[in-house]
Amino acid sequence: MTETKANAPVGVFDSGLGGLTVVREIMRQLPEEDIVYFGDTARVPYGSKSKDTIIYFSRQIVHFLRTKDVKAIVVACNTASALALEEIKDEIDLPMIGVVKPGALAAAKATQTGKVGVIGTQATVSSGIYAKVLSEIDPKITVTGKACPLFVPMVEEQMMDHPVMMEMIDYYLSSLRQSEVDALVLGCTHYPLLRKQIHQYLGESITLVNPAYETAMGLKELLEEQGLRNTQKKQAAADLYVSDLPDRFKEFANSILPLDIDRVKMVNVEQY
Amino acid sequence: MTETKANAPVGVFDSGLGGLTVVREIMRQLPEEDIVYFGDTARVPYGSKSKDTIIYFSRQIVHFLRTKDVKAIVVACNTASALALEEIKDEIDLPMIGVVKPGALAAAKATQTGKVGVIGTQATVSSGIYAKVLSEIDPKITVTGKACPLFVPMVEEQMMDHPVMMEMIDYYLSSLRQSEVDALVLGCTHYPLLRKQIHQYLGESITLVNPAYETAMGLKELLEEQGLRNTQKKQAAADLYVSDLPDRFKEFANSILPLDIDRVKMVNVEQY
């Protein structure tokens, strides 16, 4: 690989803004890597849509990111990782990594009972991908999946500390409370914002797995394997694109990323 | 107007499936009119997106409906009626009607106190369109708007009869309870499914206005004015298109429309 390529940015995408939690983790673990991020805020959410549509949207985004000369692509969206990654990664000549495999590896490490829970969107949970990947890691692990479609809109309504939030957690997670599940994958980028409430409900003995950290470490390994690590020491940059509402996105980005974002650009991703 | 044109179908669109409640009302009031419906299930919801994006999506849908030779277009989505109708109706040579004006007219008739409430998506409520239209009808009417973003996902989760639903209604509507509002516009096609619960919470003395009936009557008037009423007596047909998940849509359509839907067709609306 040429040095030019190693100095190229990493492309990251998500259905909206949740994927910035993965960007934050990449910036912590790989501070010298530049990032180009795309959030599909015009078509969010993905989690209630079909596999074909998620593949179609993801393909357009990958085509867009390629125009930015990225050296690798991180699918920071659980739904797109679950439904589109396998399909698309063979179509392009760039290394791609999603959040599902890293999340599954972390859960397999964390569980003692061999019983792992997965919460996510309807599409992610219905895909059965975590069960498939976990059984490849360790065939003895059993997976209980539960789709929690209201968690994302409630987080976006900032209702995390409202009493109704705990009732909604009870609505979705009561069956997990009585189970032997001792590791729970937070299989949607919004869910780490409910970490405190979920721990309070399920007890401190359960390990909550946020795939963001493992994804950053997986990216590091992937770049090293392929000789693509950026070895130039400098201040990394993040270039952010969305398909709608750039100002709202900029505000959120500045609240969670460790660098100042001056501008978020709009792009009509349908054209890619 | 030619007879051919009068026999053409009426185009109806919505961000998803809620607009079928408007189709049902059109079928009741104008049983001889054929319908071509488009639901944008790949990009739903619209209510949390920008005006520009809602106009862009609506314009694509109008272009698609034109290819079906419709004689008029009903914007069955409150958000698109609030944000895109004014912009688009001057661009095409077809009569267009939305749900906002009919809803506002019904609310103006219903109120005695002159205080009208409007609930809807963030985009609809922020647009201030109901206040604008109502003040044109009667400058003495004052409007209290309240965005209720969680109502749609909760209805889609079938939580209407769950105790959490009443708490969410309290979360959004407690300020209306103490007000003099005596007519409340259900400014989103999903909300009529919460009619019973909202009445229970706000009391029977408030009139809940569902714009669907008034929209069908408004369409009738519009078609008559323009000599476009279908005078051929026959069994009307409905031709349904979506941008994603046609099977789920078909099931819903068969549960609410008064005729059998054999097939819902997929269309890539981005191409229009």
Overall shape of chain A: globular
Mean pLDDT of chain A: 95
Find the count of extended strands of chain A (DSSP E, 2+ residues).
Answer: 10
Distance between the termini of chain A: 27 Å
Which protein chains make the most extensive interface, counting residues with beta carbons within 8 Å of the other chain's beta carbons?
Answer: A-B, 25 and 25 residues
What proportion of the residues of chain A is helical, as a percent range? 40-55%
- H/I helix tally of chain A: 13
Task: Detail the poorly predicted runs of chain A.
Answer: none
How would you write the strand order of the largest sheet of chain A? Answer: 4-3-1-2-9-10
Alpha-beta content class of chain A: alpha/beta
Largest sheet of chain A: 6 strands, parallel
Strand content of the residues of chain A, in percent?
A: 15-25%
Based on CA atoms alone, the radius of gyration of chain A comes out at 18 Å
Instruction: Indicate the multimeric state.
Output: homodimer
**Helix-strand sequence of chain A:** HEHEHEHHEHEHHEHHEHEHEHE
Overview of this structure, please?
The structure is a homodimer of 272-residue chains. With 272 residues, chain A is an alpha/beta fold. Chain A is 45% helix and 17% strand. Chain A has helices spanning 3-6, 20-29, 51-66, 78-83, 85-89, 100-110, 122-127, 129-137, 151-156, 163-177, 195-202, 211-225, 246-256, and strands at residues 10-14, 35-39, 72-75, 96-98, 115-120, 142-147, 183-187, 207-209, 238-242, 264-266. The longest helix of chain A is centred in the first third of the chain and has 16 residues, at 51-66. The first copy, chain A, is globular, with a radius of gyration of 18 Å. Chain A starts with a helix and ends in a 6-residue tail after the last strand.
